[in-house]
Write a structure and sequence with these properties.
3 helices; alpha+beta; single chain; three-stranded mixed beta sheet; 2 domains; 3 strands
């Protein structure tokens, strides 16, 4: 949320575009609130990919040959 005095109106548009509430005040008294049409975007938290990998594979490290074999097997399943 943001609070602006009436002489700071040039910032209102950018704050509203960012989904911020804008409080208007004069002489230390709150006069009103401008509410954006679009709410502030809340990002979707990403999963913990490293934790998933540790859960699935533990401390296993694959050799290049193993990775190549797994990839070839995947490609064969997709085309077969």
């Amino acid at each position: 949320m943001s609070t602006l005095t009436l002489d700071q109106t040039t910032r209102i548009e950018s704050l509203l575009a960012a989904g911020e509430l804008v409080y208007l005040s004069k002489g230390g008294k709150k006069l009103g609130v401008i509410i954006p049409v679009v709410e502030k975007a809340h990002g979707v938290p990403l999963p913990d990919f490293r934790a998933r990998l540790r859960q699935t594979w533990g401390s296993r490290v694959f050799s290049n040959a193993e990775v190549r074999e797994m990839r070839e097997a995947e490609l064969e399943q997709d085309h077969g």
